[in-house]
Amino acid sequence: MTARTSLTVVLAAGEGTRMRSSLPKVLHQIAGRSMLAHVLAATPHGGGNAVAVVVGPDHQKVIDEAKRVSPNAATFVQSERLGTAHALLAARQAIAKGADDLLIVFGDTPLIDESTFARLRAPLKDGAALTVLGFRAKDPTGYGRLLVQGNKLIAIREHGDASEAERKITLCNAGVMAMDGKSALKILDRIGNGNSKGEYYLTDAVSIVGELGRPAVVIETNEDEVRGINTKSQLAEAEQVMQDKLRKAALEAGVTMTAPETVFLAADTTFGRDVTIEPFVVFGPGVSVADGAVIHSFSNIVGAKIGKNASVGPYARLRPGTVLGDDTRIGNFVEVKAASIDKGAKANHLAYIGDSHVGESANIGAGTITCNYDGFDKHRTEIGAGAFIGTNSSLVAPVKIGKGAYIGSGSVVTRDVPDDALMVERSEAAVRPGWAKKFRDMKLLNRKPKA
Ligand code: UD1
Ligand code: MG
To answer: What is the domain-level CATH number for residue 352?
Structure first.
């Protein structure tokens, strides 16, 4: 039997006014990744699995993000916000292609697990017309209630339209659904807007399916997975849920963390074997940490590749484009940006290395700064293998320090230095014996009250 095809439609036309932000709601981030990207990552992809995203008017940024994450995603604009069924039908053109399974998910429900889509699709294969993801809500206020008889789903009643008795039901609609793709348009086109809000409710699909004599099914999950985000408080709660999940996964993969609750991960952080992360480390997106590396406390790491047995921090800042080779050491108060540091090289304290390449086993002394910016452009610094940069040196880019070269402390390097050369730029020191005492005596004399 050939695999069933699917179309996932992500509804993301929400205004998100309660976020109190100029950023569209689904672009807010959880673990360094937009909510929309989380949802898209969980949807079936590859092969015969297509994706469509429905956005609101003036949501070019949402379209851009959808295309960035899923270049093949089709995007549709819902020009008026007339309800979830109306939003889904904005993607009519994609639905009309008649994939076997039509999956619907909200863009503001970012914690949905990939496996849930497989569970939702299973009953369709056995002839169900519709499956709905349900959960037991601690507080069901505001959610659509699932009205079931035995294991048959009869209807979904929106909170505003529910009777007192129906409001006592705690089994709620998570908003994620799967429909028989071949009959989806027939069902969706029958949905009207005769309810308390005057909206086209997707949830009415359930009773329509019943009228057509076809079965609808509930698949249950836990409340955490289907949290919807409408406010910054809910965003922060979802972040916690996601962080716990990522920390557990890292621990299970063998990462050592003495205080995992103080370590913040990104959804795409990857670890090799025997990695240690000390307390209070923050990872942004795009970080990989290879075998045996140690990340010491209070380090902030974004867009960096960390090599085997490297040591980072405490108090290190690695910015995008950092590539640390094996056995490198980046110590306290060192910032690295867009720079490759080759095997065994060290910058142990107080340095800025930007737009640079540091060769194997080079040593960067404390207080070394690459002056990479002239107010207009960025320039590169090249430091050869085995070079020694004395403390408190300024390397004014573009500049090249040769292999094995030696830079005397306190130098301002404005010209290239050949291999194995010494470069030192320093004004002559003056030492005047007795000068300080004479100076002091004169000052004290002048201060005496005049008789
Ligand atoms: C919806 C469900 C409810 C469920 C709840 C779960 C309906 C009618 N109700 O209610 O049963 O318990 O979600 O959170 O489906 N959207 C659009 N265009 C629209 C309207 C909505 O794109 O015209 C999008 C929103 O951006 C959002 C999603 O659809 O992502 C749900 O809309 P929302 O207004 O939040 O529905 P709820 O009242 O929460
Ligand atoms: Mg909602």
So the answer is: 2.160.10.10
Is 197 found in the same domain as 51?
Answer: yes
The pLDDT value given to residue 383 = 98
Per-residue burial over 182-205, b = 16 or more CB atoms within 10 Å of its CB, e = otherwise: ebbbebbeebeeebeeebbbbbbb
**Ligand 1 binding pocket mutation candidate from 26, 39, 58, 84 (most atoms within 8 A of CB):** 84
Using a 6 Å CB cutoff, which residues line ligand 1?
A: 11-14, 54, 78, 81-84, 86-87, 106-108, 143-144, 156, 158, 172-175, 201-203, 228
Q: What is the pLDDT of residues 78-117, one digit of tens each?
A: 999 999 999 999 999 999 999 999 999 999 999 999 999 9
Instruction: Give mean pLDDT, residues 337-365.
Output: 98
Among 165, 193, 226, which residue terminates a domain?
Answer: 226
pTM (predicted TM-score): 0.91
pLDDT tens digits for range 53-65: 999 998 999 999 9
What domain range includes position 162?
A: 6-226
Nearest bound ligand to the CA of residue 172: 1
Separation of 355 CA from ligand 2 center, angstroms?
Answer: 45
Confidence band (pLDDT; 50, 70, 90) for 1? low
CA-156 nearest atom, ligand 1? 11
Mean of pLDDT over the chain: 96
pLDDT in tens, 129-168: 999 999 999 999 989 999 999 878 999 999 999 999 999 9
Q: Is 58 exposed, middle or buried (0-12, 13-18, 19+ CB in 10 A)?
A: exposed
Asked, for residue 257, whether it belongs to a domain, the answer is yes
pLDDT at 2: 73
